[in-house]
Write a structure and sequence with these properties.
The complex is a heterodimer. By secondary structure, chain A is of the alpha/beta class. In chain A, β6, α7 and β7 form a beta-alpha-beta unit. A 5-stranded parallel beta sheet of chain B has the order 2-1-3-4-5, with helices on both faces. In chain B, β3, α3 and β4 form a beta-alpha-beta unit. Chain B starts with 6 loop residues before the first strand and ends with a helix. Classes of the chains: A alpha/beta, B alpha/beta. Chains A and B meet through α2, β3 and β4 of A and α1, β2 and α2 of B.
């Protein structure tokens, strides 16, 4: 399995990703052996509100990266139903013309209850694709609103995609997203209102630039009409420039350490919470405390503090 | 955590552009807690096989309503085996004449759902198949 992944075998890599997203114990063991072989790929997040054309944009960027001779991995995330756990993972349909290209690996993922725009195993999938030798890895998040920007911590470069006519001002791309992007793309730039949206994006960025260091990266705003294949070369030029910028400043490697830290803390937090929760609820007095909360004799905060205190 | 969802690839091969049936199935499977990936239209057997492997689905479902199945589906089954996806369940739905069904089964199709099949029947079949597979430990 591990040898297959490192040799770039598609079936081996795909199965390892499946184990990781299903939380199969075999996945952990294999990932441990694969992990030392990661760190080469340029990780690119693609995010933005729903309906702006993220999948179509990724499709165009795959084409452009292939033209430049690079092997491309894609992780495309769509929401799972919170009620049934099921999902229709539809991003891939827009990229399917690459299905016969051996240099492209596309993987669809459901969020499976995870918030933040990604699936729990999205980062693991990025690591596997990296170890398989894909040179650029695009991660398309679910359509995000305002602060679901987990991808920023996990990618080298983040593209924020917008489109005209999404609402008054750029309501859909405020605070969190505006501060997060390394590159902004106004897709569907032939639509009514494009110029207005473009100006708003530029103005917001101008405000942002005033509060950062002079030698910091200045996120450009580009236009694209992804459905017609227009604008891809310019976007990949900027991505290349951003990767160079990160490498020159040592940030490419520094980000890796920061990412490792983020992922480590998150995993530790999730595992610790699970453990503590299980031991709190297993206590013989837990039912009585819960009954007090239900009967309004004890508020939930006090109840939580009480149980935490008793187990520690 | 509950059992991980069954992952299903739904595919349309060749020039068959009828999508109503496959859309109904996609929604039924999703509502039954499965993850459904759709290839879109006009796929070659190679594209579907590559997709099934990359996505590591458990099930490949081909919707076929306007012939072409006698050529495309055996080819898809063969490509799946060649590319390391021989463990995936291959099923077919749509208009498949009685006399063609034995040939497709011999080629590796596990089950054929023809006109009038109930979505509940398909869901039940897939759940049973998974339970049997997992009990056997073949993964």
């Amino acid at each position: 399995m591990v040898a297959g992944v490192l040799a770039g075998q598609v079936a081996a890599g795909a199965r390892l990703i499946r184990w990781l997203e299903d939380d199969d114990p075999r996945g952990r063991v294999a990932l441990g052996q694969v992990y030392p072989h990661t760190g080469r790929a340029h990780l690119v997040g693609v995010t933005g509100p729903g309906g702006v054309g993220k999948s179509t944009l990724v499709d165009m960027l795959i084409t452009e990266q292939r033209r430049r001779g690079r092997r491309v991995g894609v992780v495309a995330v769509d929401p799972s139903s919170p009620f049934t756990g099921g999902a229709i993972l539809g991003d891939r349909v827009r990229m399917q013309r690459h299905a016969a290209d051996e240099g492209v690996f596309i993987r669809s993922m459901g969020t499976r209850g995870q918030l933040g725009g990604l699936a729990r195993a999205s980062y693991d999938a990025m690591l596997v694709l990296d170890a398989m030798g894909y040179e650029v890895i695009f991660v398309e998040t679910v359509g995000v609103g305002q602060d679901e920007i987990e991808i920023v911590a996990l990618a080298h470069s983040t593209i924020i995609v917008a489109a005209p006519g999404l609402g008054d001002e750029i309501q859909a791309i405020k605070a969190g997203l505006m501060e997060a992007g390394d590159l902004f793309v106004l897709n569907k730039a032939d639509r009514d209102g494009a110029l207005q949206t473009l100006r708003q994006l530029e103005m917001s960025l101008h405000l942002r630039e005033q509060s950062v260091a002079a030698d910091a990266w200045k996120p450009p705003v580009l236009q694209a009409i992804a459905a017609r294949g227009e604008g891809g070369a310019e976007i990949v030029d900027v991505l290349d420039r951003h990767a160079q910028f990160l490498r020159a400043s040592g940030a490419f490697e520094a980000q890796r350490a920061r990412r490792a830290h983020e992922v480590f803390v998150k995993l530790l937090r999730d595992a610790a919470a699970k453990k503590i929760l299980a031991s709190a609820l297993a206590r013989p007095d837990a039912a009585a405390v819960l009954a007090d909360v239900a009967a309004c004799r004890l508020d939930p905060h006090a109840a939580a503090d009480l149980l935490l205190e008793r187990i520690s | 955590m509950a059992q991980p969802p069954i992952r299903v690839l739904l595919a349309k091969l060749g020039l068959d552009t009828h999508t109503v049936g496959v859309t109904v199935i996609a929604h039924a499977l999703r509502d039954a807690g499965m993850e459904v990936i759709f290839t879109g239209l006009k796929q070659t057997p190679e594209m579907v096989a590559n997709t099934a492997i990359q996505e590591d689905v458990d099930v490949v479902g081909v919707s076929s309503l306007s012939a072409g199945h006698m050529r495309n589906i055996p080819l898809l089954a063969e490509l799946l085996r060649q590319k390391g996806g021989g463990d995936k369940l291959l099923i077919v739905g749509g208009v498949i004449p009685e006399e063609d069904q034995a040939v497709l089964r011999a080629a590796g199709v596990a089950r054929i759902f023809t006109m009038g099949a109930d979505t509940g029947e398909i869901v039940a079949y897939l759940n049973e198949w998974r339970a049997t597979r997992d009990a056997a430990g073949a993964c």
